[in-house]
Amino acid sequence: MCHGAPCEHDPFVPAKRVVTIDMKYVNNTDANSEPGNDRIDGKRPSADGYDPETVVLIELLFFAYRDFVAAPDQLLARQGMGRAHHRVLHFVNRHPALPVADLLKILRITKQSLARVLRDLVSAGFIDQRPGNRDRRQRLLSTTPKGRDLALKLAEMQSQRIRMALAEASEDKRRVAEQFLFTMIDADDHATVERLINGGASGRNRTRKGDE
Predict the structure, then answer these.
(1) How far apart are CA 72 and CA 151, in angstroms?
(2) Model pTM?
């Protein structure tokens, strides 16, 4: 807890550092140079060190995700839960009898982290876990009716925002958005992700064929 003061570890709060400016890089020539004179290979480097072609997308992704999770975060907070609980609840609800081992691969978190989240969800009555039919050491996860109801409420909140954005875009733009997000996923995980999201795979396949 920071008790009202900015947390030192917060990446969005500038750390208190002494900044030394090397004045040899500041002169009248630099100050009076015409726009475009600092181009290198036809591209003007960003003044703040960022790649000007991608920093806009970085920030759009940040703000889009911020607003995408805002309403679900509020609902989860009333349950004493957070985004980690949301992710587990979503994939368990989408894939009943999901083995814990498979969930670990999807989320790419440690067993210890998942154990804490599962403990909360099970004790609150949102998720059931049972041993596997063939391997009793295996743990299979499914949502309870209460858990399914919460998972669908959270999904509907996010679906409304997506539908609103898609309503202003053409079908071609929707496919471009799908392909863009899919391509950002690690290539060695593409097949797994396509299997997980099921129906969404057909849209990307159509997009690929259209690009051929």
Answers:
(1) 10
(2) 0.69
pLDDT tens, residue by residue, 64-122: 999 999 999 999 999 999 999 999 999 999 999 999 999 999 999 999 999 999 999 99
What is the tens place of the pLDDT at every residue in 176-211? Answer: 988 999 999 999 999 999 988 864 334 444 444 444
Long-range contacts of 113-117 (CB under 8 A, 24+ apart): 113/84, 114/88, 117/84, 117/85, 117/88
Helix axis angle, 70-78 to 55-68, nearest 10°: 40
Residue with tokens 């797994």: 192
Q: Taking a C-beta distance cutoff of 8 angstroms, is the pair 114, 107 a contact?
A: yes
Which residues have a Cβ under 8 Å from the Cβ of 194 and sit 6 or more positions away?
A: 200, 201, 204
Q: Please state the length of the chain.
A: 212
DSSP string covering 8-24? TT-TTS---------GG
Rounded to whole angstroms, the Cα distance separating 198 from 68 reads 22
